[in-house]
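During the no-cost extension, the postdoctoral fellow (Dr. R.K.) reprocessed legacy sequence entries with the updated structure-token encoder. One reprocessed record is reproduced below for audit purposes.
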Amino acid sequence: MARPGSERSSTALRAEIAARAARLIAEGHMNDLAQAKRKAAHQMGVTDGRALPSNQEVGDALHQYRAVYNPEHPELLRDLRQKAAYLMHFFAAYRPYLTGSVLSGTAGEHSNINLLLYHDDPKAVEFFLLDQKIDYQHNENAGIQHVAGYPTLSFWYDETPVLLHVRPLSAERNASHREDRATLAEVERLLLPAA
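Re-encoded structure tokens follow.
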């Protein structure tokens, strides 16, 4: 049985780690919530993994931080989502989905737009990019699970880094492999003015 007050101190510690992780993300030092939590805990000398806050707690702390220190964040996020919607139209033949920090709302000014593209020919997207004269690179360290034989491609669009994570069509239908993702229609709904 826990000592009286130990739950409160554990909650306070989780909140402090979440706040520090949020600051690391907001100040542009990292984009990955799990990495930010681990770094924040390390900076505080916390080694017990059970003390780490959830992604939701870090997300909430990040929203609070930005409300105070980055009041322009909603405009930045809207701009990134508009760019993502344009790119989803552009890559419509490849069944695009938005994923990552632009979808979750945790994106900052240095964040990537991450799109999942589905096609059974792993080279089809590369040929399309070449036809469109878009200078791209392979990027296999993109932070999203790599699928053997299917590339992650990176390029810049309107001063924003873009990552295209190509997947086979079966991965789109396979619910056990679904990341948090949004269709173009869902992204366009996110861009509607709040009622």
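DSSP finds eight helices and five strands in the chain. The chain has two domains: 6-69, 73-190. The remaining legacy entries will be reprocessed before the final report is submitted.
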